[in-house]
Each structure stands twice: as structure tokens, then as C-alpha cells.
Amino acid sequence: xxxxxxxxxxxxxxxxxxxxxxxxxPEWNDHRIELVIGNLLRAGVLLSAxxxxxxxxxxxxxxxxxxxxxxxxRGNLSTLRTLAGIFHGTHNLSGSAIIxxxxxxLIATPIARVIFSAVAFARERDFLYVAFTLAVLAxxxxxxxxxxxx
Length: 150
Hints:
By secondary structure, the chain is mostly helical.
């Protein structure tokens, strides 16, 4: 009839060693890379949203009672247009600076994804995709910092 199932992994030497298809394997495969990239993007967006919400709470706690004047437009403070200004304002618990930091984290999230992808492709020894990914990273860097180089 039916043979009993052997549930003792000691009798089967291949059962004790993980294969390359198991998710616990340290080998880099496409599925694992997709999972890490998905988690990276998810964590970046959640962190960014949390920082923006905290900044909004701080801003409303300090300025929520002010009456808005919509007759004149006032843009962002010039101090919030540099990294040093944003970090200094965040250190001083400025609500606007904390919101700006959250937006910077949101911008940094896809950049971190591109950097991770380049590293993952290099570990897989897929150098054509490493080149494409580094080209995308160069375009991103130029779009962010290129105007400040002139």
C-alpha cells in the first residue's frame, strides 16, 4: 500500500542542507532582491510619512493659532533650501524643517533603491545591468545636483 513518510531528516542527508531555492539561503537571487527592494521602498515611504506627520504636529503646535494671510505669498525660508539649514532647523525642532527633512527622505528612497540595485546586480555578476543602473544613478544625481554646479 502506501509507504510511511520519513519525517526524520537525519536519514536524508539532503534535507539538512538548504538548497539555493530556499528563501533562507544567503545566495542572491531575483526573488530575494525583489523582496529587499520592496521592503526598502516601503520602509523609506513609511519613515518619510512619519517624519512629515511629526513635523506637521510640531508646526501646528507652534503656529496653529496664527491666522493665515492669503493676500501675500511667502515661499519657503531660504534656510530650508540647503541640507545644513534643514538639519539645523530640525535640531531646533522647527516644524517646517522637520517636514522638509521628511520630503528629503522621500526623495532619497528611490535613490537608495537604485544604489541597492547596482550592488545586487554586481553581486550577481550581471555587469550590463550594473552599467545601466549606474547610468540611472548618474542621471538622478545630475538632476538633483546639476543645477548647483553651474
